[in-house]
Protein 1
Amino acid sequence: MLKIQVTDKKITDQKTSCYAFLISEGAATPSDLKAFQKLFGIDIGQYLLKHEFTGKLLETFSLPVFLKNKMHHVIIVGLGKPGKDKKIDIEQYRRAVAHLYKQVAAHKAASFALTVPSARLFGVDVQDLGQQTAIATEMAAYHFDEYITAKDRKAYVVKDLTLCVSSKEKTALQRGVKDGDIIAQAVNKARRWINLPPVKLTPVELADKARAIAKKTGLKFTALNEKQIIAKGMGGLAAVGAGSDQESTMVILEYHTKKKNAPTIAFVGKGITFDSGGLSLKPAKSMETMKEDMSGAAAVITTMEALAQLKPDVNVIGVAPLAENLPSGKATKPGDIITFYNGKTAEVKNTDAEGRLILADALSYTAKQFKPDAMIDIATLTGACAYALGPFFTGLMSQDDELVSELEDAAERTGDRVWRLPLHDDYKLAVKSNVADLCNIGSPKYMAGTITAAHFLKAFVGDTPWAHLDIAGTAFDVPDMPYFRTGATGTGVRLLIDLAMNW
Ligand code: BES
Ligand code: MG
Ligand code: ZN
């Protein structure tokens, strides 16, 4: 694991295997690089000129240097151009440092040192910059290789990063790094759970992980077993897990702030540990990555673990309905009608539209039991969302403009991006059934499968301010991002933590 230290000594005083520099496009040679050149008598500027290095985002330049007969590396990464406001987008910084980490690892350097650029350059404060530095580098360092046995195929792990900063800014940066470390560990834990093969992470096993987290951090933990789920009238969750030999369960984690009269927010995450589609079986290709269908639940549980340590001034409830969606002689059939926790009924026309069935129970249960001031669900809900927005934006649907702007602000700060789709009432009739209150798939005339799915969920939130996040496109296999790799991204974790911390 990457350990990050903060020092007020100069980069030229560091003992490290790699000296790293970030250069923005069109800027003069940074002073730390100048000092480095002077001390070691190397004219890196000449090399940069020769190689026409301009500082474009992710542009990379490296050379070995011999100091007292020992080899070190110098790695320089471009930060890109400032915008019209003369500031560099903090997302460019996140990508540049993440890319830098991967370059250091590619050079098999055990440690690297970096002078932290001025926070003003990005329009953030020093603590934020420390937080983003830790998050981006630790996310870049994560790799799911625990099932690879060939040693030469394991990811090279960089052990130490030293951040050099002025003595004035040291404490603030350190504070940011400490919080960033908590957030990054939550993101990477979610990624690991999602990446685990579905045989290794069943609903009960995921619930056990949540229980262990609660025990360690002091969160309140409740789990409903299948019998209790049925007894409470949660017909949706019961129906989805019916075909599987694995028990369904519903996990509830509670964080209570010491602050008096604090508001309460609730996060609800879809936890299908494997989605075969059920009797409405998916084609083989579409099933290949369906271990990712518990990404919402993973995001909620790891967010709760981070919040237990970061201690926001708001009560937070995390709810995760967990089940496995498989066909069998006991499986729910197209044509079945189920009754949910709030008494509403739905005709199941397609057993592959199962996410909304488990969320319907979880949302109505959370609204009734906790009466939260706001409720946000997060789910790999519709393939349509991945087609609409691709892998870079999570679909956001809500009729509450204030909640939308809170989420958009959190997305802007964290880089965990969202894009609003219109949850207009005109789409509502799409999920009406002739034989029950609702139908679990939208009528084809309305198309817009992501929005009609959200309308199904809306029938279960009552008057609670609510927003829905569809992460079907963003949860898994996002290309080109320096802080991701193939597999799970941990999308939603940074977003939800930030939302709670700034509530
Ligand atoms: N888990 C899928 C959605 C999904 C698709 C997530 C691709 C990630 C990547 C969900 O349960 C599902 O199967 N949805 C159906 C709904 C349809 C039957 C109305 C879909 O999107 O096809
Ligand atoms: Mg079962
Ligand atoms: Zn499905």
Protein 2
Amino acid sequence: MNIFEELSTRGHQQVVFCYDGSVGLKSIIAIHDTTLGPALGGVRFWPYASEAEALTDVLRLSRGMTYKAAISGLNLGGGKAVIIGDPLQIKSEALLRRFGQFVESLGGQYITAEDMGVSVKDMEYVRMETRYVTGLPEEMSGSGDPSPVTAYGVYLGMKAAWKKVTGTESLKGVKVLVQGLGKVGMALVELLHKEGAIIYATDLSAQQLDHAERSYGVQPVSPDDWYRQPVDILAPCARGGILNAETIPHLRCAVVAGSANNQLADEIEDSLRLAERGILYAPDFLINAGGLINVYTELEGYSRSRALARTEYIYEATLRVLAAAEQRGITPHEAAMQLAEERIRSISALKTRSLLPAISLTTA
Ligand code: NAD
């Protein structure tokens, strides 16, 4: 891999390689763009097959965070970190604290948070060495589990998309299928149930499905061919890559709006496939931004009600993205990317202007 070419293509500002053999730490911190604010993104602890794979992942994920923050109206940039290795084998207090020291050395340019392979307890160790951590548990005056806030944002994005298609935002009597009844999916089901939607759901866990059936009257669907179920709205809340060349031709819905990250297996091809089938896709990185909004709120001193109020922005933002897609003749995914880039450019220009020295007028 030609590293500098990669950085230039994806537009990264800085990539920091952090190594300490004495504690087994091999980590990469990628700062994509700090025009809007400090680069925020979680740290992923993963047994990558190679260093090149780890680098590709951190570059891709940090860039994604820039777009997510920008389209959500947050004053944050995009960043991400990876720690290479099997967390079950090499994770230790010393390794995590050493990682925290590297984060601290960046002076707040990068703010870290929990991600795959990293627990709340682990973040407590990181926090011992750096102030630049967010997404802490409530007992540490943090924001706790972001999932209910994420679910609220997905729900609002879904309502906005439904309004675009039908002229009404009410989901009463609307058939919604939720794939994945985890922390976000279950909270979304609860909101949909309150609104009177007809809910179908699928999960690999019979226990989760059973709970949703008993508590919210959901109708179970097989996890193998869930995407063939005729419904109004599909809400993928399990994993990425599920909108692809194989599944899209079989979808029987008007809208896709869910929490899963990177739902489109191929951002360009699959968003076009959905558009060609007349299916409205609410961009995942926009409508699942509630979790990011939640940790952003923590940086100012957390209040759940402020986080939820701020998440309401997702409704307007979704309508704006869908309108831009229509006006520009592009897919919603592309429109969200363009609007995010436009916001970054306009704020960048604003900052440049504010740095110009004032002209002092003198009379001769
Ligand atoms: P989770 O691990 O709590 O739940 C995922 C659920 O999906 C589990 O119940 C699992 O059994 C189920 N599942 C996995 N594979 C499945 C399959 N093939 N078919 C059916 N069910 C399947 O995760 P979560 O925190 O609820 O997050 C869900 C998705 O939303 C993830 O893609 C996550 O990256 C994304 N997301 C979450 C948040 C958040 O605040 N938690 C924020 C943004 C994005």
